[in-house]
Amino acid sequence: MRQAARLLFGRGARLRWVHLILGGALAMPYVLVGTVIIGPATGSTDVFGSFPLQLASFGVGLPIAAVTSLFPLTRPLEAAAVRWLCGVDADRLAFGPARTRGEKRRTAAWFTLHLGFGGIIAGMSLAVPPFAAVLVLLPLFAGLGGTRLGLPEVLDHAWALALAPVAGAATLVALAGCAAGCGALLARWAPELLGPSPEGRLAAAEARAADLAVRNRLARELHDSVGHALSAVTLQASAARRVLDSDPEFVREALAAIEDTTRRTVGELDAVLGVLREGDGPGTAPAPTLAGDLDGLLSRTRASGTRVTATIDADPEALPPLLSREAYRIVQEGLSNALRHVGHRVAVDVRIAVAGGQLEIIVENPVTGPAPSRPGGGHGLRGIADRARLLGGTSTAGPTTAQTWRLHVHLPMKGPV
C-alpha cells in the first residue's frame, strides 16, 4: 500500500504531474488555433460548447505543435524540463539544438507526446477534482436531492448517497494513476527521443577521451616537475642543516640550488596551469628538454649531496623536440625516485645513448633496504610508462641481480607523436 501511494503521490509523481500540466499549458495556443480551423469547417460558432469539437481542435493543434518544435530552442528547453521534473539523468539527454533530420523527427515526436499527454492530464486535472468534491460532499446535502443539484435521479437513493464519497475518492485516485502512468511513459521515452544520436554519443565520447588525455598529461607534468622539486629541495635543506656549522660553503651552494629549483618549478607550474585557464595561451615558461636543461637538472640534484654519474652518448641538440621533452621528464622522475627512496647518501648512475634508432635511458642506484612507503602510493613509474607508451617505446623498472634498482626506457627516435 505504501509503495502504491508513493508511486501515485510521491515527490517524483508530483514533479511529473507538474511536467504534464506544463505540457497542457503549452498546448493551449495550438488548441486555440485548432478552434479557428474547426469552427469555420463545421459551421459552428461555439466550438468550446461542444466536447467533440474541442477534441477535434486539440487533434488539429498537435500537428501544428510538431512543426513548431523544429525551432532550435525546443530540444534544450524540453531536455532541461525532463531532467528536473521527470528525474532523467543528464547524460542520457541532449541539450543542444536538433541538427540532423533524425534528431528533428525525434524532437517533434517528443513535443507532440508531451503536449498530447499534457493536454489530456491538464483537462482531467481541471474537471475531475470539482466533480469528485461534489460526490464526496453529496451526503451533506442529501435533503436537497440529486435532481435539485442538477445530478442524476439515481443519486436520490440512499445507497447511491452512501457510495458517492467512495466514487469521488476513486475518481481522484484514477486521476493520480493516469498522471503517474503518463509521466512514467514520458520519462521512459525521453532518452530515446531527446537523447543524443549515435553520432552525438560518439562525438561526446571522443570529447571526453580528449579531455581525459589532457588531464592525464597535465597530471604527469605536475607530478614530475613539482614532485622532483619537492624531493630535491627537501634533501638539499636536510643536507644543509646537518653541515650548517661545519661547511658554510656547502650550505651556500645548497641554498642557491634551492632558490634555482623553486624558481624554475614556479615557472613550470605557471606553464602547466596556463593550460587550465580557459582562454589563456601557453604559460610563460617553456617545457624543459634534454637540450635545454639536462646539465642544470644534474647539477641541482648533485647540490643535495647526491653523487650523480652521467654518461651521455647522444647529442641532445639533435633529438626531436617532443622526444627531448619527454626524455627529460623521464630522467627527472628517475632521479626523483632515487632521491625519495634512497636519499642522498648513495650514487645514482644516469646513462643516455642512441642505439639502433632508439634513445635508451637508464637510471640506476643501489638498493639500501626496503623502499619507504608513501601515503596513497606513488604514480611516477606509471607516468614514465605512459610517456614511453605514447611515444611507441617501452619501460621497465625493478631490482637487478646486482642489488641495484634500475629504470630502463627505450624511446624510438621516430615514434608516434
Count of distinct strands = 5
CATH class of the largest domain: Alpha Beta
Rg result: 38 Å
Structural class: alpha+beta
Number of separate structural domains: 2
CATH topology of the largest domain: Heat Shock Protein 90
Compute the separation of the termini in Å.
63 Å
- Please give the oligomerization state of what you see: single chain
CATH homologous superfamily title of the largest domain: Histidine kinase-like ATPase, C-terminal domain
Mean pLDDT over the residues: 82
Main sheet attributes: strand count, strand direction, barrel closure: 5 strands, mixed
Q: What share of residues is helical? A: 55-70%
Q: What general outline do the C-alpha atoms trace?
A: elongated
Strand order of the largest sheet: 1-2-3-5-4
* Count of alpha and pi helical runs: 11
Q: Note poorly predicted spans.
A: 279-284, 371-377
Indicate the CATH architecture of the largest domain.
2-Layer Sandwich
Beta-strand content estimate: 5-15%
Order of helices and strands: HHHHHHHHHEHEEHEE
